[in-house]
Write a structure and sequence with these properties.
alpha+beta; 8-stranded mixed beta sheet
């Protein structure tokens, strides 16, 4: 049985997620300003841009990468996201290139020349675009959809994306990954069970997922 935290009321973020409602910055994201008032105005503007996204994010839940499994001859790889309590698992089949890209970043392997997702990160930095979060938003006809929430000049920008690309960018920028409640209700597997038979079936499912069941 799935356990759901209380839904966000009136579009507000739940208290436990407030620390994540911030932009991710590196030293290259923003140069220091000689005018502290201008810097303060820009800071406030960025926060207001983030808050303008909040009403669209009701009923969303932070997810973490549980496992990434490279595919064999089929070329289909698997990423499994989990919730904070490790009671809900969201399996998504992705391409082998994207899975390799995610694993390389997680394992701290950095090629001499930038790969596609490294290039996207560098473009964001060069254009002074900050990414706030990525969200797996929908599952339609067994295909997952995602968006990247970014900020450019205090203006919120929502970028359509495949989940694999969004996650590969998220791990490079250190920003949180979320999934909507609707997606979790449609596709998440629950490990919150005291029934040993159900738990064993769940483990077998992870070992024998059909790529056609969960794709992007």
């Amino acid at each position: 049985m799935n356990r759901w935290p209380p839904p966000c009321k009136g579009g507000a973020l739940p208290a436990e997620l407030i620390p994540h409602a911030t932009l991710h910055y590196t030293d290259a994201d923003r140069a220091p300003s000689t005018n502290p008032h201008a810097a303060g105005a820009a800071f406030i503007g960025e926060r207001l841009a983030i808050l303008s996204m909040v009403p669209t994010m009701k009923d969303f839940y932070q997810m973490f990468i549980h496992m990434v499994q490279l595919g064999g001859e089929s070329g289909q790889s698997l990423i499994v996201l989990r919730d904070v309590d490790a009671t809900l698992f969201l399996p998504i089949y992705i391409g082998q290139f994207e899975a390799t890209s995610i694993l390389m970043e997680l394992e701290g392997i950095h090629p001499a020349r930038p790969l596609t997702h490294d290039l996207i990160r560098n473009i964001f930095h060069s254009l002074n675009v900050s990414v706030a979060r990525v969200i797996v938003t929908d599952l339609i006809d067994r295909t997952f959809y995602a968006v990247i929430h970014a900020i450019k000049d205090t203006r919120p920008v929502e970028i359509d994306s495949r989940p694999s690309d969004a996650i590969a960018i998220a791990v490079r920028l250190g920003v949180p990954i979320f999934a909507t409640r609707e997606v979790l209700e449609k596709a998440a597997l629950s490990a919150d069970s005291t029934d040993e038979k159900e738990l064993e079936e769940f483990r077998r499912f992870l070992d024998n997922i059909n790529p056609e069941d969960f794709k992007e």
